[in-house]
Amino acid sequence: MESFKDSAGRQWQLTINVAAIRRVREQTGFEFGTCLEEDGQAFFAMLNNLELLPAVLWELVRGQAQDAGVRQDQFFDAFNGEVFDDAAPALQRAFAFFCPTPYRQAMLNMMEMDPIDASTGNGKASSSRQELDVTREPTAIES
User: Among 16, 38, 59, 114, which is 20 to 30 Å from 108 by CA?
Assistant: First the structure.
């Protein structure tokens, strides 16, 4: 299961299922169902949207947050650049593994897993794990 840590040190588990996808659509307007269309442009746009990404993540972790007594404003207050760098790739991986097998491979093909070189300032996610470059333009899905 994919997870990310916020700046308050709270660990959030990302569980994507049909109920979560519906909740995200109803509360944010983002539709996971469009993620594989047009080479994933909508998905990559969401990952790079500084307001939409935390809103989508909130809907995915809302139950955990309520159990922990964390309000939405507290969740949003605990987002900074490092959290975005950790959360965006975690969400992409979580969604890829939610997808049925043929779509999973297409989603994984869109992910470029490169080592991070923080010294270059190349905009890639920075963490101790290998992460994907969420700033790159999506590439075509090979059939």
Answer: 59
